[in-house]
Amino acid sequence: MKVMVMVKASPSSEAGTMPSEALLAAMGQFNEELVKAGILLAGEGLQPSSKGVRVRFSGRQRTVIAGPFIETKELVAGYWLWRVKSMEEAIDWVKRCPNPMQEESEIEIRPLFEADDFGDAFTPELREQEAGIRAMALGLGAVRFENLETRTIAGLNTRFSLETLGNIPLHWQRFVPHLGHIPGQMGKTAYGVCWNPGEGCSFDYLVGVEVDDTAHLPAGFEHLQLAAGRYAVLTHAQHVVSIKQTIDAIWTQWVPDCGLHIASQPWFERYTEAFDPATGLGGVEIWLPLAK
What we know:
Number of strands: 14
Strand content: 25-35%
Oligomer: single chain
CATH superfamily of the largest domain: Regulatory factor, effector binding domain
Helix content: 10-25%
Order of helices and strands: EHHEEEEHEHEEHEEEEHEE
CATH class of the largest domain: Alpha Beta
Number of domains: 2
């Protein structure tokens, strides 16, 4: 779950009193602990309300109201955005926080809405729209959604771990000479299928092509089926050597907050005929299966 942790304003913060060196150091250490724990997503301090404005809505009328605002206890002087396992974990972390003010102060914790909180009103179409917006906000580009029929992929399979990811290009190099000579090959599109995840972020990675028959595959070839269903399709627009950065962003930043449920089945990279091996550009897609 994600929570917003709000530092409530105080007379000193509204007066513009800057924190001491000791408090800045203590807060820096606390923030470093949050980062190491994988909790901190964002966080900033806010200027006094005297430097802010409010916009009041009344029908079609918009009225701008300049600060300062008098209700100090209702104002926010700073915030964090955290990803935690529970509200109890968030409370435990707040208790470890240095007092952010010179005087008595309060920190408020509020959980953020998640897609499932909206129930049936948040239709599959709206979920996909929201997921697309979040992808663009992260710089991942537009997302499209495709209904895929069952297909069989055949090629070379190897197991990788975080320590051996650098060997994936060599795995592709071993496969490339087979392209166009694989019995039953359908089309020129190549696939890199991630499947069979295990401990320590290990996984099997099959590089191959779609085939309509597996009876006469070359020695050492394996095959698997990509399940029929709906897929989210994201595009890798940069050079192929940087695809790991795109995949990391998808799984660590987009997937946790996109509002979609990713199915526990193989997902894959798809290298279409638009991919140019000479330049390493164009036609690279990442397909993620959606749960029904």
